[in-house]
Amino acid sequence: MSPGKLIIISAPSGCGKSTIIGEIIDNPALRLEFSISATTREPRRGEVDGVNYYFLSVDDFEKAISNDELVEYEEVYAGRYYGTLKSEIARIQAKGKNVILDIDVKGGVNVKEKYAGNALSIFIQPPSIDTLRQRLLSRDTDSIEAINQRVDKAAYELTFASRFDRVVVNDVLSDAVAEVEKIISEFVNA
Ligand code: 5GP
To answer: Domains of the chain by range and CATH?
Structure first.
């Protein structure tokens, strides 16, 4: 068992990724700490700088890029940058804990490539595109246009699944949580 491993969780939006991470983050057997990303998007209500994200101006984000402070970054939505800070990974590893990253599918593939055997990448998949559409519709938070856009994006993101170490289908949430916990436990305790 060596501490400081990276666990990457990626998924199309609406697949339950954040819920799954919330369920496993405090499992003491996994010794996880959440990697707080940098982003240029505005904080949502209730979000706190340095807790949910490091909220940066575009200027500061660009400085971080040119100073080579990021492990990876992506423009996940038009004009909105998200990236993993090297200092964040180092902060968590220095505590002897494993780092869990909630990042988009491209970021997930990039971090896995960089950290190779010290990283485990998990792709959370909806049972089907139709189920995903139903889930987004039942949340009732987005317009039909926005939902169609997210579904189209999800269909594209699903093509990345084969580039991940493991794929977990989130049909029944409790089953998906148990499967993810088992996969991480095997990896961090190997
Ligand atoms: P949200 O704005 O809903 O918090 O996040 C939008 C998307 O950005 C999610 O898919 C999330 O996983 C992704 N994301 C968050 N942080 C990072 C990061 O550091 N790098 C990359 N590539 N994606 C991220």
So the answer is: 6-188 (3.40.50.300)
